[in-house]
Design a protein that fits this description.
The complex is a heterodimer. By secondary structure, chain A is an alpha/beta fold. Chain A has a 6-stranded mixed sheet with strand order 5-6-7-3-8-9, sandwiched between helices. The longest helix of chain A is centred in the middle third of the chain and has 16 residues. Chain A is globular. The relative contact order of chain A is 0.11. Chain B is mainly alpha-helical. Helices cover 71% and strands 1% of the residues of chain B. The longest helix of chain B is centred in the middle third of the chain and has 27 residues. The mean pLDDT of chain B is 91. Classes of the chains: A alpha/beta, B mainly alpha. Chains A and B meet through helix 1, strand 4 and helix 2 of A and strand 1, helix 2, helix 5 and helix 13 of B. Strand 4 of chain A pairs antiparallel with strand 1 of chain B, so a sheet runs across the interface.
Chain lengths: 397, 281
C-alpha cells in the first residue's frame, strides 16, 4: 500500500461574477474528491469551462478552495509556462534566476542547472540579451524550460503540448516520462486525449465543475467521446410537430468497425445515424450533412442523398437514415456535424440539426495537411526506367 | 526522507498561523533576495544617472524648500543650516513615501504572476520595502557629505537613528501589506496614494521642527498629532543625526505603539485576503 500524495476532500470552489454587491455566485467546482497514490499518473479531462483550470489553480495553491481540503505530500511543482514572470529589461540569465526562485528553486540549484535549462530552451546565444528582444517562441521555451527542470515529488502539468514547436514538445514529453520513471506523482490537465491515454494510468472527467467519470484512462477517454458524440444535453426531441412536416431529432456519429464504436480515427470508417420524425408524408426530399471545424468554418463539402438526382419520400412517423463512409478523411481534431432535410424542387430546408453534435477525431494513419485521402500504391516496371510516363493530366493507360 | 505536507483550506481567521508563515517565508528567502535585487537593478538599468536617482528626489525637494524659505527669510531650523535640516528629514520621508506607494501596488502590478504560480504573496510588497531601504542607504551617503560640508559632526545621539529606521521599516511592511491587499479589491487606493502622500508630508515635521508643533498645540491636540507615526520617526532621525539630541519621548513612544498595532493587524488582513487574491486581481 503506497502513500497518497494528493488528497482532495469534498472541494468546492465558488467565483463571483461581476463586481460589487450584485455579483452572481457561480460554483466552478463541486464536491470534488480524488486521491492520487505515490508514483501514479492521473489525467484530468473535460471541455472548456468544465473546471479543469480551476482545479489546477487549487492544486497548485494559487487560490484557496471555498470549501473542503486539499492535502499534498511532497514538494509540488506546476509545469507551466512562466514567461509571465519575466521582466523584459532583464537578461535571459537574470530571468532564469528570477523565475526559478518564483517556482521555489534555490539559487544554488538554479546555478547548477543553468546550462541545462538554457540548452533545453535552445537560447544559448541569447542568454545575456534582455528578454524583450526575444522572439515569442524563445520567450515561451525559456519560461517552460525552467519549470521543466524542477525535481518535484508531485508534478502538475497543464496543457504541456500547447507549448512550442513539435521538436520542443518531444523534449517536454521526454522530460515528463523521465520524471514518471523516477517515481514522481503526476497530474495532467489536457485537451490532448491521446496524450492522457498514453501518459496516465487513471483519469477523471469533469463536466460542469463535477467529476462525472473516473477510472482507467482509456475508459474515461472513451466516456468523454461518448459524451461528445451523444451529448446528454440533447436527447431525442419528443415533439415533432412542425409546420414543415419534418424534424430531425438526433444525430449520432460512430465507427462501425470498432467494438465500442466510439473512437473516431482518421482513415477509419465512420457512420452517422440521423433520426427524423415526419408528421405527414413528404415527397421529393434529400438529406445533407455538414461538417464544421470548431472555429465555425464549413470544412467539408456537403454530401447529399440527392447527389445523383435521387429523391426520398418520407412517411410518418419517421425513421433513421445512415450515412456511411469507409475512410474518414478529416484530420485529427474537433468537429461539429450538422444535417438538414431539404425539399429538392424548392431547395427549402424542412428541418435541420444545427451543429449540436460534436465529434473528436483521433490520429489514424500519419497525415500532414488538411485531409487524408483514401489511396493505394503499386510498383510498376520495377526494373525498367525507359518506360514512358503517361502524359500528365491524363489517366494512365 | 520526510516530505513536506501542504494543506490548502478556505481562508479563515482561525487558520492564520504567523509562525508557520514565517517558516514558509524563510523557505522562499531566495525569492525575496532575487526579486529585491532585480527590483533595484531594473529601476536603474536603463537610466543614465543610474543609482544617483536614489538621491535626486530628496535632493530636489531639499533645494525647493531651501529656496522657498530663502525668499521668506524665515527658515524654521534655528541654528542648523536649513538644507541639512530639511535633507535629514527628507531621506526617511522619501523612504516612506516611495516605499508605501510602490508596495501598495505590489499585488495589482503582478497580476499575471499571481494567477500563474504560488509563492508567499507577502514577498511582493516586502521587496519594495527592501528597495526603499537600499535607496535610503544610498541617499544617506549624501547626508554624510552635506554634514561634512556644513561642518556638523555626528555624536553618540546618532545611534537613535537605528531604532527610528527599524520602526520605519516595520511601519512600511505593515502599511505595504495592508494597502497592497486592499488595492486588489478597492482600486481607488492607487488613485488616493498621491493625494494621501502629499497631505501626509505636511502633517509630518519635515520642513518644520516638531518642537514648533509642541509649542503651538494644546497637549491633547499634540497627542493626536503624534499619532502619525512618521512624526516620531522623522523627528527622532533628524534630532539624532544632525541636531545631536535624543528623541521626543512622547512622539517616539506613540509612533512605536501605533506601528506595533498596525503591523499585526495588517498581516492578518493580508493573510486572510491573499488566499483568494488570484480570483480577483
Amino acid at each position: 500500500m503506497s502513500a497518497i500524495d494528493v488528497r482532495v476532500e469534498d472541494v468546492w470552489k465558488q467565483y463571483r461574477l461581476g463586481t460589487g454587491g450584485k455579483a452572481d455566485a457561480f460554483w466552478a467546482l463541486r464536491e470534488i474528491a480524488l486521491e492520487v497514490p505515490r508514483g501514479a499518473s492521473l489525467g484530468i479531462i473535460g471541455r472548456n469551462g468544465a473546471g479543469k483550470s480551476t482545479l489546477f489553480k487549487l492544486l497548485a495553491g494559487i487560490t484557496a478552495p471555498t470549501r473542503g481540503r486539499i492535502t499534498i505530500e511532497g514538494r509540488l511543482a506546476a509545469l507551466i509556462e512562466v514567461g509571465s514572470g519575466f521582466h523584459p529589461e532583464l537578461t535571459g540569465r537574470e530571468n532564469v534566476f528570477l523565475s526559478g526562485a518564483i517556482l521555489g528553486m534555490r539559487r544554488r540549484e538554479i546555478a547548477a542547472k543553468l546550462d541545462r535549462i538554457v540548452a533545453f530552451a535552445g537560447v544559448e546565444r541569447f542568454i545575456d540579451t534582455p528578454v524583450k528582444w526575444y522572439s515569442s517562441g524563445m520567450y515561451v521555451r525559456l519560461g517552460f524550460a525552467i519549470a521543466a527542470h524542477l525535481e518535484p515529488d508531485v508534478l502538475l502539468v497543464d496543457e504541456v503540448l500547447a507549448v512550442g514547436d513539435a521538436e520542443f514538445q518531444v523534449k517536454c514529453l521526454e522530460r515528463i516520462r523521465h520524471l514518471q520513471s523516477v517515481g514522481t506523482t503526476n497530474l495532467f490537465i489536457s485537451h490532448d486525449l491521446s496524450a492522457v491515454e498514453r501518459l496516465c494510468d487513471r483519469a477523471i472527467l469533469l463536466e460542469g465543475g463535477a467529476i462525472v467519470a473516473s477510472g482507467p484512462a482509456r475508459d474515461v477517454v472513451a466516456s468523454y467521446h461518448r459524451r461528445l458524440t451523444f451529448p446528454p444535453a440533447a436527447p431525442d426531441q419528443p415533439d415533432g410537430a412542425t409546420e414543415t412536416g419534418a424534424v430531425l431529432t438526433n444525430l449520432a456519429v460512430h465507427d462501425p468497425g470498432q467494438p465500442d464504436g466510439l473512437t473516431l480515427r482518421t482513415g477509419q470508417p465512420i457512420a452517422i445515424a440521423i433520426r427524423y420524425l415526419a408528421t405527414r408524408p413528404l415527397t421529393g426530399v434529400e438529406f445533407e450533412l455538414r461538417y464544421y471545424s470548431v472555429d465555425g468554418t464549413t470544412c467539408l463539402a456537403a454530401p447529399r442523398t440527392g447527389e445523383h438526382g435521387e429523391r426520398l419520400d418520407l412517411r410518418p412517423p419517421g425513421g433513421v437514415v445512415e450515412f456511411a463512409c469507409d475512410v474518414l478523411p478529416l484530420k485529427p481534431g474537433g468537429y461539429y456535424v450538422g444535417a438538414v432535410i431539404r425539399d429538392v424542387s424548392t431547395s427549402k430546408v424542412l428541418a435541420w440539426w444545427d451543429g449540436e453534435t460534436r465529434v473528436f477525431v483521433e490520429p489514424g494513419p500519419a497525415t500532414r495537411g488538411e485531409l487524408y485521402i483514401p489511396h493505394r500504391w503499386r510498383l510498376i516496371h520495377a526494373d525498367d526506367v525507359s518506360v514512358p510516363l503517361p502524359a500528365s493530366g491524363a489517366p494512365p493507360a | 526522507m520526510s516530505r513536506p505536507i501542504t494543506v490548502y483550506e478556505p481562508a479563515a481567521l482561525r487558520r492564520v498561523r504567523p509562525l508557520a508563515a514565517l517558516a514558509h517565508l524563510r523557505d522562499h528567502a531566495d525569492l525575496l533576495i532575487t526579486l529585491s535585487q532585480h527590483r533595484i537593478k531594473v529601476r536603474y538599468k536603463q537610466s543614465r544617472l543610474g543609482i544617483l536617482w536614489a538621491v535626486v528626489q530628496p535632493l530636489a525637494m531639499m533645494l525647493v524648500f531651501t529656496l522657498v524659505f530663502g525668499f521668506l527669510r524665515s527658515a524654521p531650523s534655528g541654528a542648523t543650516p536649513f538644507p541639512l535640516f530639511a535633507y535629514a528629514a527628507l531621506i526617511p520621508w522619501t523612504m516612506f513615501a516611495s516605499g508605501v506607494t510602490n508596495a501598495s501596488g505590489a499585488l495589482t502590478s503582478h497580476a499575471s504572476l499571481l494567477t500563474k504560480a504560488y509563492f508567499p504573496r507577502e514577498i511582493l510588497p516586502l521587496t519594495y520595502v527592501v528597495a526603499a531601504l537600499v535607496d535610503f542607504a544610498l541617499a544617506s551617503l549624501l547626508l554624510g557629505l552635506l554634514m561634512a560640508w556644513f561642518g556638523v559632526a555626528p555624536t553618540w545621539t546618532a545611534l537613535w537613528a537605528v531604532p527610528a529606521i527599524a520602526l520605519l521599516a516595520v511601519l512600511l511592511i505593515g502599511l505595504g501589506l495592508f494597502l497592497s491587499a486592499l488595492q486588489v479589491r478597492v482600486r481607488d487606493v492607487a488613485l488616493a496614494m498621491p493625494v494621501l502622500i502629499q497631505v501626509w508630508l505636511f502633517a509630518t515635521p519635515v520642513i518644520y521642527p516638531l518642537d514648533t508643533v509642541r509649542a503651538a498645540l494644546p497637549p491633547w491636540l499634540y497627542a493626536l498629532y503624534v499619532m502619525n507615526p512618521m512624526a516620531g520617526i522623522v523627528d527622532t532621525f533628524r534630532r539624532a543625526v544632525v541636531l545631536h539630541q535624543g528623541p521626543d519621548v512622547q512622539a517616539l513612544v506613540t509612533a512605536a505603539v501605533v506601528t506595533v498595532l498596525i503591523a499585526p493587524a495588517a498581516y492578518v488582513y493580508f493573510t486572510v485576503t491573499e488566499r483568494t487574491v488570484a480570483d480577483v486581481v
